[in-house]
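FYI - complex with FE2/S2 (inorganic) cluster, inputs then prediction.
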Amino acid sequence: DHDPLVIFTPSGKRGHFPKGTPVLTAARQLGVDLDSVCGGRGICSKCQITPSYGEFPKHGVTVRDGALSDWNSVEQRYDDKRGLTKGRRLGCQAQVQGDIVIDVPESSQVHKQVVRKRVEARDITLNPSTKLYYVEVEQPDMHEPSGDLERLIKALRHDWDLPALEVDLGLLKTLQPTLRKGEWKVTCAVHLGDNMFGPRIMHIWPGFYDGTVYGLAVDLGSTTIAGHLCDLATGEVVASSGIMNPQIRFGEDLMSRVSYSMMNPGGAEEMTRAVREGMNSLFVQIASEAEIDRDLIVDAVFVCNPVMHHLFLGIDPFELGQAPFALATSEALSLRAIELELNLHPAARVYILPCIAGHVGADAAAVALSEAPDKSEDLVLVVDVGTNAEILLGNKDKVLACSSPTGPAFEGAQISSGQRAAPGAIERVEIDPVTKEPRFRVIGSDVWSDEDGFDEVIASTGITGICGSGIIEMVAEMRMAGIVDGPGLIGSPEQTGTSRCFQDGRTYSYMVYDDPERPITVTNRDIREIQMAKAALYSGARLLMDKFGVDTVDRVVLAGAFGAHISPKHAMVLGMIPDAPLDKVTSAGNAAGTGARIALLNTKARAEIEQTVHDIHKIETAIEPRFQEHFVNASNIPNAVESFPNLF
Ligand code: FES
C-alpha cells in the first residue's frame, strides 16, 4: 500500500511516485535522461518510452496491466496524426498507476552515445551547444505592460528553467511577427552558452518547429579543408565534403606561406581572405549536399595547425616563422561566425580548440581529444604524420607532446618520382629478396603489376609516380631486399645482383618501372630525403620516450589522412616509429576531424580538452640536445643503435 515504484532502464534510476504522475515528471525528478522539446504538451514525441509488463525478479517488482494510464485524448490525437510505434507511449501523457519498469530508448535520450566505428576510441556523448525549446508565451496586456521579448524569456525560464538569455538585433527584428504568426506559440533554438558567451536565443520559429539544427566540424588543413555537417539533435553526420585549401597558390607548405606574408605587404590578409572564401564555398557545397539551408547551421568547431589558425583568424603568422615561435594565443576561442566572415546562421558560434604550443596546434589537441591518451591505461604513442609531425606520448598519468619538422617528403614532394596520392600513383610495393624484382599496385586499382589485367590499369591511369605511403613501402622493401644498406646507400649492380640498379651520376638508382616516356626510379637522393624525414619523426618520438623514462611503448596510433595509408610493418622497417608489436600499431584515420566532431557534439568535451591541453607537457625539440643525437642514429635504416625485436 505504497506509492507505485517507477524503475527506469537503462539508467536503473528508481523512485516512488503518487498515482497520476506523468512518466516525464518522474523522469525529471529522478534525473533520468528523457528528451522533450514541447515541454509535455504532446506535440514533439521526443519523450517516447517503452513500458514493460510481467515479472521482474531482478528489480523485485511485478508490473500488472494498468500500471500506466490508458491513452488520453492528446496521445490518441498524436497517434491518429503521426502514428506511435507499437509498444511506445508518450512519456508526458502516460501516467503512473502501479509499479512499472520503463525503458528509455536511445532515440529519446538527450545525451545518447553517438556511434563510432573504432572500438578502442572514446565514445561520443551527445551534449550539443544548441537545443530546441517550444513555449507558449503570454499575450501582451495593457494593464501589465511588458515587451514581447521579456514575456518570451519569462516563458522559457518558467517552462525550461533557462537562465537569463541574450538575443541579438537580428532575432529581435523577427520576434514580433513570429510570435503573432505562431499565435504566441514558438520554438526557440537556444545556445546554452560557454565560458565566453552567456546563453542566447539563436532563432525562433512560429508554432512547433519539427526540424532540427546543425553544426559543422571543420578540419582546416594546409592542403585540404574537410567539413562534416552534424545533426545536433542526433549527432549523426548528415554530409561530409572537402576542398583544396585555396592558400596553396601562395605556397605549398606552411613555411612558404609564412614567408609569402613576410615578403608581400598585405600578403597575410590576402591569405586570410582566400581561406575564408574557400570555407564559405565549402559550406555552400555541404549544405546543398545535405539539402538544407545554411541558416540552420548554428555552431561550428575548427581544428587547424598554428599557422592556419593565425591566418584563418586574420592574425599575421610572422612570429610563428621564427624562434621562439610565440602564438598570439594558445587558448581555445569562442567567437561569432560573423566575425570570421563565415556565412552560416547570422548568430552562429565558432569554437576553435586550444593550441598546444607554437608548433603543436589545435589539430593536435583534437587528436588528443579523439585518441584520449590521457585516459589510456597503456602507454600510447600517437603520431600525426604530415609536413610537421605532431607527436603525443602518454597514459592516464601524464601526456607529453612535441612536433618534429619532417618536411614534405612523406607527401611525395622532393622525391624524384614523388607525387600526391592520386590515381596512377604507386601506393603498394613488394620486392622479391632473391630476384630483386618489384611488383606494385597503383591507386585506383587492385591489380598488381605482375598480374593479368595490369595493362588495362596502365591504359586507364598510366603510372604517374609514387605517393607518400608508396615511397615508405618502397624504401623499406629495398632495405629488406638488400638493395639499400643500413646507412642508406643503393648498391651497384654487382653488389645487389640486379641490373635494375644503375649508375646515376656519382651514386646508384633503382629502376622501378622502365617506361621510356616516364621511367619511375628511386635515386639515392630520394633515399636521403626519406631518411631525414623519418629520422625527424623517430627522434621526436624517442625524445618523448626519454622524457617519459621508457624505452618501449605499448601501442602506436598513426593519425592523419596519410597515417591511414601507412603500412605499420614498413613504417617500422624504415625505423620511422619505435618498435612495438605489429598488431599494436593501428591507424586512427582522420583523428583531428573526429576530435572536431567530438567537441562539436559534446560541449563538455571542450572544457575537458582545454584542461588536458593545460596539463600536457610541451617539449621543444629544437632546444633538446638529445634530439640531434637521436636524429643521427635514426638516419640509419632502421636505426644505428635501437633494436626492433618485433621485426628482426
Ligand atoms: Fe513533447 Fe511528450 S514532451 S510529446
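The first helix runs from residue 23 to 30. The chain has a mean pLDDT of 92.
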